[in-house]
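STRUCTURE:
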């Protein structure tokens, strides 16, 4: 048995996998977000560590696993002291407190320099602007910190005592993707040159690997091998078998995580998203993790008095095009980060009249999120196969919308816990344990596009791009942001 642990923004999961990749058991624990101020989102580190211990013990059921693989949410700022204890609550990637800093960096060229160096465009929830925000507001906090790490790295430190990160988490924004080492120029550009000692060492090859030292926390035998990483985006790609250049993975989760495999480490001409190192030499992930996703849909469902379980029925009640209702699904207080960066981005509906039904509003936002996925994939250089995973993909009606918007078959990843599956495959690779990847990463079904709907959605996508472009000009004008070329790449409406 192998155990994979996936620490998400709202839930922590532990999954036991058999030797052939079958999900044998799943345990969950809530991962709570705390909001101490408007636009501020934080985690209690001790609460998360205790949750990991509970789910690991529950899913193992007294059996000693061969290894434990950990993955988790990325970005944010997780500050710990020399013993690995938090010096303040962890700041989530959803946090908006650094939005003014990002706007300043976009205006003065800092964001462009960071992108040129690391291939990633900063956004309010990234580590660099959050470090800068804490340095301005809480300098004493940084002086007490020994490490500015990431979620999985904090848990790894508590379980094994190892202070390290892997190439995927280190990629944004401090790593040079060509050398796979930290770039001091990024720190200097962000005004953080004096804080380089806070960055944990980047483990070589297959990431951090160490024996479990705190067996009491998890009820697992001390000495059990524990692997840290990759973080949730690359872990999901690994677990879904998305490894060939041009192939893509869409995760329809709290956010819409779109990734395309590339053999080119240099940033392309779309200054947005992330360029993530992987554990495979010569392969990177061009990631466009948009802030839209099931969080936007859940908000609309709540506004119309519906539940996620009602989604299939609501989609059946409204035709393609939602009777003329369209949406921009930018609900996050932090704005948008891919395939463009706009801290001031906000959502809207258009085309509403007295005949508009709750089903029309729900379908409009589902279609808008699918348009956002196509926007992200095209910006990332997609030209191959598409695999889908995440909670949103389990609703056939919504998956069918994605397939028709993309005009390509949508392959559903095996099992519900793709991130945990990737974490276990990472642990197996770190241990030199050969896995049958064809079996572990086989897809389970295919959602084919409807030809008539696909033609309709081509026109709808062109309309969506026009609305986004117009909205960006308005957001900039309203918030005094300069007109920049960040993410202004004009995309073709023809499919790859």
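SEQUENCE:
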């Amino acid at each position: 048995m192998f155990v994979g642990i996936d620490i998400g923004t709202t839930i922590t999961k532990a999954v036991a996998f058999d030797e052939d990749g079958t999900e044998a058991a799943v345990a969950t624990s809530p991962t709570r977000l705390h909001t101490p101020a408007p636009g501020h989102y934080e985690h209690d580190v001790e609460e998360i560590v205790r949750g990991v211990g509970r789910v690991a013990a529950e899913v193992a059921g007294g059996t000693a696993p061969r290894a434990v693989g950990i993955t988790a949410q990325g970005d944010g700022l997780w500050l710990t002291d020399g013993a690995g204890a938090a010096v303040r609550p962890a700041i989530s990637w959803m946090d908006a407190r650094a939005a003014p800093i990002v706007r300043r960096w976009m205006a003065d060229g800092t964001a462009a320099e960071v992108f040129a160096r690391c291939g990633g465009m900063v956004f309010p929830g990234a580590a660099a602007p959050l470090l800068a925000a804490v340095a301005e507001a809480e300098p004493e906090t940084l002086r007490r910190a020994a490490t500015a790490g990431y979620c999985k790295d904090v848990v790894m430190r508590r379980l094994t005592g190892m202070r390290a990160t892997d190439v995927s988490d280190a990629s944004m924004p401090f790593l040079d993707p060509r050398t796979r080492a930290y770039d001091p120029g990024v720190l200097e550009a962000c005004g953080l040159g004096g804080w380089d000692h806070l960055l944990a060492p980047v483990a070589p090859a297959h990431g951090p690997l160490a024996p479990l030292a705190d067996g009491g926390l998890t009820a697992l035998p001390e000495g059990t091998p524990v692997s840290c990483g990759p973080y949730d985006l690359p872990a999901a790609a690994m677990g879904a078998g998305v490894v060939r250049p041009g192939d893509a993975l869409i995760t329809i989760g709290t956010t819409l995580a779109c990734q395309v495999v590339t053999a080119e480490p240099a940033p392309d001409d779309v200054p947005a998203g992330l360029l993530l190192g992987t554990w495979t030499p010569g392969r990177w992930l061009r990631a466009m993790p948009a802030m839209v996703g099931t969080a936007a849909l859940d908000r609309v469902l709540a506004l119309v008095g519906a539940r996620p379980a009602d989604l299939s029925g609501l989609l059946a009640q409204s035709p393609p095009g939602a009777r003329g209702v369209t949406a921009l699904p930018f609900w996050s207080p932090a704005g948008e980060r891919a395939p463009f960066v706009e801290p001031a981005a906000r959502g809207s509906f258009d085309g509403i009249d007295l005949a508009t039904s709750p089903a029309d509003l729900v379908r409009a936002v589902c279609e808008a999120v699918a348009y956002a996925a196509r926007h992200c994939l095209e910006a990332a250089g997609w030209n191959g196969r598409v695999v889908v995973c995440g909670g949103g993909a389990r609703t056939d009606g919504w998956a069918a919308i994605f397939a028709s918007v993309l005009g390509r078959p949508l392959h559903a990843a095996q099992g519900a816990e793709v991130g945990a599956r990737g974490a276990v495959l990472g642990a197996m690779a770190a241990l030199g344990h050969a896995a049958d990847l064809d079996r572990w990463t086989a897809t389970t079904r295919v959602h084919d596009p409807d030809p008539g709907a696909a033609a309709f959605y081509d026109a709808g996508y062109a309309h969506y791009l026009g609305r986004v472009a117009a909205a960006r000009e308005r957001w900039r004008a309203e918030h005094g942001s300069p007109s920049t070329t960040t993410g202004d790449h004009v995309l073709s409406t023809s499919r790859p």
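REMARK: The first strand starts at residue 2 and ends at 7.
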